[in-house]
Each structure stands twice: as structure tokens, then as C-alpha cells.
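I'll show a sample.
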Amino acid sequence: MRRISVILKILMTALFTISGLCACVEFRSKNEGQESQFPKAIQLVDLPSIQINEPMYVFDGKILNLQDMELEIKLNEVSKKSVKHDFDFSIDELTMTDGGSLYTLGNNVRIHVRNIKIESGLISTFPEGQTAEFGKNGRAGGHLLIDIQGGVGILKIVMRGETGGQGLIGASPEDSMKGSRGNVCESNAVIIDWHGPDPHQDWGATLRTLLGSTFPGSGAKGRAGGEGARGGDSGTLELKIRSNSDFTFAVERSPGGGGSGGLGGAGGEIGDYGLNKDCRELLKYFHLEDKLGKKGEQGETGKTGPSGLVQPYCINRQDMISCL
């Protein structure tokens, strides 16, 4: 794995040297469905200026707040519209104020900015704690290219994979997991029509009969839950700063953690015994209820899934290139 990472760094550095930030670099994730090929079918978006002062999200070629994005998702579900995942934004002026953040949501995104002004700004692939749907692998961070001509402020960039979804619930109990059958209270020697203690009844004989009976067995323990899904890879970053301005940055990489294990399945049922209310009262009178079997315990919780990978990034500041 370390050898692959070194090869990627060498390849990225070579491509940067030849053509700046080359858009033909192909990054691949080990997650199924996480392959990130950039560009593929890029949607070009021109924005004269934009101010971000709240969490904003890249969705289908738009930069939307949470409420508007959720509305777009619902409209797309109704119309069955296919959503694009490769975007190229050209922005004349980008301003980010306190509380402002931009999330690319695993899309492959290019952001070209002529001038950037940051009071407090964050660009990240996913919000912290974002988790995939039940049983699904976390999405990779995708590929992010940020090309800045000049600006001021400190930009924090977080390449984060999505946390894997929770594992599947353990399988339902099968008939074979049911407890063994009992025959308690089936003997004619046991009084079924129970109306309380009778001083004329030979309770010793009744007790001996009960104790000689077979009580229904307990059900088997439930099946274990499924392993949590794999976390998404962190994603790859290319950052280009063209001028020697007062703009600085900080980069963090955080692969998605593995999903939590699925809950254990239900235990098997108590064995058949055909007890009626009167017989249960009789067992209670002789303090024999604890001899009856119990429903099987819930199965063990599944294992936590594997985490994603930390992927490389490259910085090109005035043609000074470094890759990690």
C-alpha cells in the first residue's frame, strides 16, 4: 500500500511539472463504486461572485444551502432526473465569512477563483460525521482542484471520506433455533383445573409428577449482526496558488471510518409446551416457573467495518510543487 502511495505521488508531481495542474490525472479508490475519474463529463459553471456565510453544498452543478439542496433532491426523485457529479466552477470573487463552509459531497470538483477573501472559511468533501446509508460503503471524497489567482485569509481544506453504513441486522431465527418441546402438565396425574390450594389434594404426588416432567427448552441465541460497511477514502486534492499573496491554507486528510456492526438477530422461541393459564398458576404455586425455558438471547453485534484510505494531495504555489 505504501508503494502504491509513493507511485501516486511521483506521478502527480511529474504531471504538475509538465502542465501545471493536469486535468487528465486519474485517481482510483479501492471502494466499489468509488472510482473517481476526472474529468469525465464536466459541467461548466460561471459565477461572477459568491458569498458563503453558512454551510453550502455542491449539488448537480449548483451551490446550495441545506434547505434548497433537500428540495432539489426531492424534485429529482419525483422527476427521476439523473444527477451529474463532475463540475468546473469559475468564480470571479469568492468571499467566505464566519460560519461559511462549502462541501463537495464526493463529487469531482474544480474551483477556479480569481480573487478569494476569507474571514473564516472551510472547503471540505463531507461534513464531519456524515454516514452512508444502512449497509452501504461510505463514499470517497472524490477529486478536488482549487485554483486561486490571489486573495487574502486562511482557508482550511479537509479531505474526508464518508463513514460506512451500519451493518445488516442478524438473520431472523429459524425453526431449528426453537427450544425443545416439553410435556409438563400433560399427565393426567396433574390437576389442570386449578383454583388454588386444596387441603384434600395429595400435593406431594402432584409435585413429583411435575418434577418428573420435561420442561420446554430455551431458544438458541440469535444470529450475529453483519459487519459494518467500509468507510470512504479521503479523496485527492490539487491546490494551485498563482501569486505571492497574503493567502494561506491548511490541509487535513481523514478517511471515513468503518460503519458500526449490525444489531444481532432475535433469539429462538421457547419450546412448545401447551401450557394453559391454570397450569402456569400451578407451577407458580410450586415455584417451578424458573424451570421453563426462555426466549433465546439476542445475537452479538457485528464487527466494525474497515476504514477508508488516506489519499495523496499536491500543492503548487508559484510553480513550487510538493506532494504528500
Summary: The two ends are 14 Å apart (CA to CA). The chain has a mean pLDDT of 84.
